């Protein structure tokens, strides 16, 4: 129990982070534009799947606009980008419109995909434990296998570090 008398947050003991070489879990999720995105439909392409806590918050906006600003060099290097959060589609639609985001933002309100990717669990924010989205990025290769996985990343400068890791030259 916490001091407030509520149960302390717990993470599932079965939550496992993906590692290089793992088969990426398949998913199909609704998107901000009213459609859906499916990892299976993207097979044959490399996909950057990034998980973020909440649309329209400062850190998530920084990360999303960094991906937006580097979308051309990523695509030229053969990478698609998909953002996943537990936000409802209506909030994602407003976020995409407000920030001019042109890559899919997917809604995972039941956390099934977040959990399958190890991006949902116990985390510490400003010294306080909670259960929620662990800001993470998983890069899936054309064969459906994980080629890069990073958990607990910081929003600021994350995309620049990812570009270096992937050998992609940043946009202007």
Automatic annotation (TrEMBL):
> How does this polypeptide assemble, per the annotation?
Monomer.
Query: What Gene Ontology molecular function terms does this protein carry?
Result: thioredoxin peroxidase activity
Q: Does the keyword Disulfide bond apply?
A: yes
PANTHER family with a match to the protein in the record:
AHPC_TSA FAMILY PROTEIN, THIOREDOXIN-DEPENDENT PEROXIDE REDUCTASE
**Can you tell me which family this protein belongs to?**
Belongs to the peroxiredoxin family. BCP/PrxQ subfamily.
Its name, as the record gives it, is thioredoxin-dependent peroxiredoxin
Q: Which UniProt keywords apply?
A: Antioxidant, Disulfide bond, Oxidoreductase, Peroxidase, Redox-active center
Which organism encodes this protein? Answer: Pseudokineococcus lusitanus
Its EC number(s): 1.11.1.24
Q: Look up the domain of life of the source.
A: Bacteria
- Disulfide bond: present as a keyword of the record? yes
This chain's function reads: Thiol-specific peroxidase that catalyzes the reduction of hydrogen peroxide and organic hydroperoxides to water and alcohols, respectively. Plays a role in cell protection against oxidative stress by detoxifying peroxides and as sensor of hydrogen peroxide-mediated signaling events.
Q: Which GO terms describe its biological process?
A: cell redox homeostasis; cellular response to oxidative stress
**Boundaries of every Thioredoxin domain copy:** 18-168
Pfam families xrefs: AhpC-TSA (PF00578)
Task: State the reactions this protein catalyses.
Answer: a hydroperoxide + [thioredoxin]-dithiol = an alcohol + [thioredoxin]-disulfide + H2O
């Amino acid at each position: 129990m916490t001091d407030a008398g509520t149960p302390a947050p717990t993470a599932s003991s079965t939550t496992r982070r993906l590692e290089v070489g793992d088969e990426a879990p398949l998913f199909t999720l609704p998107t901000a534009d009213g459609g859906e995105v499916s990892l299976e439909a993207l097979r044959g392409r490399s996909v950057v799947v990034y998980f973020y806590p909440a649309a329209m918050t400062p850190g998530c906006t920084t990360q999303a606009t960094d991906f937006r600003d580097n979308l051309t060099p990523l695509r030229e290097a053969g990478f698609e980008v998909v953002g996943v959060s537990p936000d409802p589609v209506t909030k994602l639609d407003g976020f995409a419109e407000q920030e001019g985001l042109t890559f899919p933002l997917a809604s995972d309100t039941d956390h099934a995909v977040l959990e399958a990717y190890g991006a949902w669990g116990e985390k510490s924010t400003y010294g306080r434990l909670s259960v929620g989205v662990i800001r993470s990025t998983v890069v899936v290769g054309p064969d459906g296998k994980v080629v890069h996985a990073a958990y607990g990343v910081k929003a600021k400068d994350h995309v620049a570090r990812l570009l270096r890791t992937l050998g992609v030259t940043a946009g202007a």
